[in-house]
Amino acid sequence: SRTAREFDASYEARMQQEVHIEYGASYDGLAVMWGIGNKHPSAESCANACKNHKPGTIPGPFSKLPCNTFTYCPINVNICFEPDAHTHHGGDCWLKFTEVPEKIEVNQRFDNNFPGTTRVGVKYSER
Prior knowledge:
Blueprint: H1 2-6, H2 11-15, E1 25-27, E2 30-33, H3 43-52, E3 69-72, E4 93-97, E5 106-109
Antiparallel strand pairs: 1-5, 2-4, 3-4
């Protein structure tokens, strides 16, 4: 993709990236590193892992892509949402690549029982 081709993967450029943290947000993107087994104590630590990610160093189908967004499950949360078949827990940190980081797509904000996620007064976990 053009975004991936034009990404400056040099250490200096990666350290100059701006980091924006939105607590409780699950951003869409291709996982360059899965959250399972990639534990971090804070969103800031996860953000730094994204900045420090060097394309081509982690095996997987998207290993050559840079990290330009991330999703973090807060350490104090038991289970977090991510649109896959696994159960995710506090501390999981997904390093991701998105084509349009300046207009990122959001999978979900907060957990499945957060106010506003109910349907006809029934929480997601009670459906």
